[in-house]
Amino acid sequence: MSAMLEVKNIHCAYDAVPVIHGISLEVNEGELVAIIGANGAGKSTTMRTIAGLMHPVSGTISFMGEDISKTPASAAIKKGLSYVPEGRRLFSKLTVRENLELGAFATKDRKVIDERLEEMYELFPILKDRRDQTAETMSGGEQQMCAIARGLMSKPKLILLDELSLGLQPSLVERVFETVIEINKRGVTILLVEQMVQEALEIAKRGYVIQTGTIVYSGTSQELLCSEEVRKAYMGM
Asked: pLDDT for 99-127, tens place per residue?
C-alpha cells in the first residue's frame, strides 16, 4: 500500500539558486509526522513545495497516488491537501468568521460551510467568542488557532502545519500542540514543521531532520529523541 504523501528526490531553487537537494519523505494515512531542523534548513521551502506554492526543479510529489508536482496550491486544496503557513498569514482586517469562510472557498454550499464553522467553533471555542472581531485584534495564540481552523475548513485529508510555535509564549505553544494531537485523533493526517524539536517529536509518530536542504536523519520519534547526534545538535543536550 502506497503512502498518502510521497516526496521523491525533490530539488528546489529560488532564482536558480539551489536550496533543497534531493529530499525524499513519506506520510502514511492517519500519521502525525514531524520535519525538524534549524532555522534556514529548508523546512518551510519543502512545505511550500508540497503545498504547490512553488514547484520542484526535479523529483516528484505524489498525493493519494496522484502526481501533484506541478499542481498549483488552489487545486491541491481541492484534492484534500491544506497548508497553514509560517506566520499565520491571516487577513488582518477581516473578521474571524470571514477568515474561516475563505478556507472553504472550494465549497459553494452554504449549509456545508455553516456546518464546518460549527465544527471549528467546537474545536476552538475562543473563535466562536471572537467570530465578529477582526483578526488583527486577537492575540498571537488566538490568531494561530484561527489559522489552523481556516486550514481545516477545506476538510483536508492531509494538513501541513508550518512553524506553529513561532512567536508564541511557551504556555500557548503547549495548547497549540494539544490541539494538533486532537486534530490528528479526529482522523486528519498531519505533516508538521517545527523548530521546537523535542516538543514536535514528543507528539509525532515519526520524524525527518533537515540540514542545509538535505535530510540527515529519519526514524521514529523515539529513535530521534534518543539519538545522541540529534540531542546535541538540536536540543542542546
From this structure: 999 999 878 889 999 999 999 999 999 99
Q: Containing H/E element for 100?
A: helix 96-102
Q: Are residues 91 and 45 in the same domain?
A: no
pTM over 0.85: yes
Tell me: the pLDDT tens digits for 89-100?
888 899 999 999
**What three-state secondary structure class fits 184?**
helix
Tell me the three cell numbers of residue 86. 509560517
Q: Which of 210, 120, 128 lies closest to 163 in space, CA to CA?
A: 210
- The reply to whether 55 and 101 lie within a common domain is no
CA distance 5 to 70: 15
Do 73 and 144 lie in a common domain? no
**Residue 52 belongs to what domain range?**
1-80+158-163+189-237
Asked if 148 and 105 sit in the same domain, the reply is: yes
Of 37, 50, 149, nearest to 103 by C-alpha is 149
Interstrand relation of 214-220 and 206-211 (parallel, antiparallel or unpaired): antiparallel
- List Cα–Cα distances, 12 to 9, 45, 101, 148, 168, in angstroms: 10, 8, 32, 26, 29
In a domain, 124, yes or no: yes
| Pair (75, 1) in one structural domain | yes
